[in-house]
Write a structure and sequence with these properties.
The protein has seven helices and six strands. By secondary structure, it is α+β, with helices and mostly antiparallel strands.
Length: 195
């Protein structure tokens, strides 16, 4: 079936085409001038947004968030001095950049809950993600039985606790069986067992 969503999905899947690179290049020029958080009227990737549960109705907010690329890489100390405490070269947060973008956006909009996110672009310095947020106390959300689950207390601050798709992926919860014994119920809880 050749409809709008399949065409958009195919466009974003083939990222090496000249059409995709030309469209993205024009966007990056604009996005670099913008701030870290930019509220947008409609999602850029409508197919991914709808998959995550987005609806074009009041109560849904889409924010494009910029995150710097790369890890917290430190340079080694000079050889001529003693620097035993800070010999680490790599410092990792244990989070992927999409989860970091979600948590920063949730802090910026404390009255909204993160529903999900997806990649929309990157250059040599930054990555951009679109974050789908929901107002849990909006009347349009409370009256919709497909999304009013987000108003329950157990879902408050879900991105800070790694309950979104990006958080679950960083926590290793999408891996099952051999090699994933330490992921559940959490890495911290597994380390405290039998202590």
């Amino acid at each position: 079936m050749n409809n709008l969503y399949s065409n958009v999905r195919e466009f974003w899947r083939k990222r090496n085409t000249a059409e995709f690179k030309h469209a993205q290049r024009a966007r990056y020029i604009t996005w670099r001038r913008e701030g870290t958080f930019t509220r947008v009227e409609r999602p850029l990737r409508i197919d991914r947004a709808r998959t995550l549960g987005y609806k074009a109705k009041p109560g849904y907010v889409v924010v494009r968030t910029k995150v710097r690329r790369g890890g917290r890489r430190m340079s080694r100390p000079n050889r001529g001095r003693t620097k035993g405490k800070n010999l680490a070269v790599d410092k990792t947060s244990g989070k992927n950049l999409r989860w970091i973008a979600e948590t920063r956006t949730a802090k910026r909009y404390p009255n909204l809950e993160v529903l999900g996110s997806y990649w929309v672009g990157q250059d040599g310095k930054s990555k951009w993600f679109e974050i789908i947020l929901v107002d849990p106390v909006h009347p349009a959300i409370l009256s919709d039985k497909r999304i009013n689950w987000i108003n329950r207390k157990v879902h408050k601050g879900r991105t800070f606790r790694g309950l979104t798709a990006a958080g679950k992926k960083a926590r290793g919860l999408y891996n099952r069986g051999h090699g994933a014994e330490k992921a559940r119920p959490s890495r911290r809880a597994h380390g405290r067992r039998n202590k």
